[in-house]
Amino acid sequence: xxxxxxxxxxxxxxxxxxxxxxxxxxxxxxxxxxxxxxxxxxxxxxxxxxxxxxxxxxxxxxxxxxxxxxxxxxxxxxxxxxxxxxxxxxxxxxxxxxxxxxxxxxxxxxxxxxxxxxxxxxxxxxxxxxxxxxxxxxxxxxxxxxxxxxxxxxxxxxxxxxxxxxxxxxxxxxxxxxxxxxxxxxxxxxxxxxxxxxxxxxxxxxxxxxxxxxxxxxxxxxxxxxxxxxxxxx
Amino acid sequence: xxxxxxxxxxxxxxxxxxxxxxxxxxxxxxxxxxxxxxxxxxxxxxxxxxxxxxxxxxxxxxxxxxxxxxxxxxxxxxxxxxxxxxxxxxxxxxxxxxxxxxxxxxxxxxxxxxxxxxxxxxxxxxxxxxxxxxxxxxxxxxxxxxxxxxxxxxxxxxxxxxxxxxxxxxxxxxxxxxxxxxxxxxxxxxxxxxxxxxxxxxxxxxxxxxxxxxxxxxxxxxxxxxxxxxxxxx
DNA sequence: TAAATAGTGTCTATAAGACAATATTAA
DNA sequence: TTAATATTGTCTTATAGACACTATTTA
Lengths: 234, 234
Description:
Chain A has helices spanning 59-71, 134-151, 165-176, 182-191; strands spanning 15-26, 29-36, 46-47, 50-52, 77-84, 95-103, 119-123, 196-203, 211-216.
């Protein structure tokens, strides 16, 4: 269709929302931040946090705003996940939703924000059906997070500001659902340039010999990557 | 904001469009499909092809439809690239655009489609400023395509149905802007399970010893990947 | 002391990169 | 024949994965 010729039928009114897949690692499980809906449709059902994009703000800004409202924290990693635009995904009207993925450390407790509905961290393995197409969006977010750990330093986003190699390894083990050799993992991550910055401190919070504490480094990519080998068909 | 409470101020009307980054490799260059705008704003300026999402179709379907209209071809690889939603990206009204990346073989000539404006393949290195925020979208699309070649078999999408290893290698060289060792590349791609299916035929269209012809295999990922080593800081 | 976790070293297999050598065609 | 491109093989180096071993703490 010709761009530039505008007639009312060209732009049927859409509502645009943002939905957030906020993931954290807590209690040995990958958890998503969910809210319980207080209104129809899907009243009482779990859903992803989110809301309408306002006229004066960009879609990305709306995501940042909603994330702050839901978690009470700013500065978390936030990236676009995808846009979901099936005609009947919201039974009431045509809503196009831009989904975002956020990775968070183990935050004390979800803040209900301006929303009166309950918010909770739910292990992704225990998430049943969700409102709208949110189950699909959550799945896509989890898969994106898993892939991101391979070639970016984002695993550290799940950790507190200072963390040990073992804590980072547990993030990988929980998100990927595998177990990793502690010794090879240690050699690998401490060998990647710019990934970890030693603080000089150490902690014995995991028991045993105290472990060195690190902060996130400035590396934007993890090279060579930490690959999950695909399942081989024998 | 509470999902489920709808009031007019909650959903200011947005228009939703799709924009297409359609890339091909031709004449030793990575080229993008661009259209020249026939109307204000940005009249006479190059822009990405695209158009409005209709009420009854999904956003993804709108992208497929527009791609067919612009190229006259269906079945091309098409994936979401990202959503661009700055408030003033279109000077006339609030438009949120969902961008898609399509990879195409060297199609004979762009079809103007239902659009009267001229369409053309333009080498991405020669693209100047574009209408709206399309230069940024194109950049993102090119970078996505470059990254995709590393760990997916999508390089073959730029090739005709039957192609030689050298033709596939030239795709990588042109898209990445590097030169690759023909012998190592050959060993690599013929060694990846499910990437290339030999047709049994061969061709001498490149001169010299005839090369075996292959079709795309069924592999969805390229493992191990064909990595571009990042530039090392010495 | 034992138990637990942290960290280093060593070996092997795989794969990437450099590049020699051979193969098969056209001019 | 020479020139051009295709394909195979060989060597070196980097890295992943398995796992022995040492180090440092608490109980």
